[in-house]
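Quick start: load a record and inspect it. Here is N-acetyltransferase:
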Amino acid sequence: MPSPETRSVRSITWRRLTERDFPLLRAWLEQPHVARWWHHETTPEAVARDFGPAARGEEPSEDLLVFLDGQPLGLVQRSKYADYPEYIAELAAIVAVPEGAMSIDYLIGDPEQVGRGLGPLMIRSVVESTWAEFPAASCVLVPVSAANRASWRALEKAGLRRVAEGELEPDNPIDDRAHYVYRIDR
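Running the structure step on this input writes:
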């Protein structure tokens, strides 16, 4: 084990996704470990249709391109539940959605980076910045498919706790409706 003096510190940074990033995002969405859970169309037109409004600031959510030590690592989508009442209505059937609640969704694009503890690091970094960037944010509330163990384990390792279980519409139609909901408070 390296001594504390020689241990490297991993730097997580991000910026808003731009249209120039769509080819990289498309390549990530096509990776089997991402496609399984994101179940997203990957034609250039579909990526532009679904990610273009946020990239241009026309959508209230943020798509953040995340970097590890300056190299692209993944994507985090961050949004206020208040901007999406239809999600509040669906989620409220299984858990209270407090005023000021935020949500995130995330992926690590490069399969070589999966399983190295980077998901929790990425999640924790974005959650910590959420408190500073969104002063009215009361909590981060994340629904995740119960079948996606890697995702909910990353949330747990990042400090979120499971607060509910219930049925929600899955992102991938091959999944059942069982979901866990994770939460971290300011």
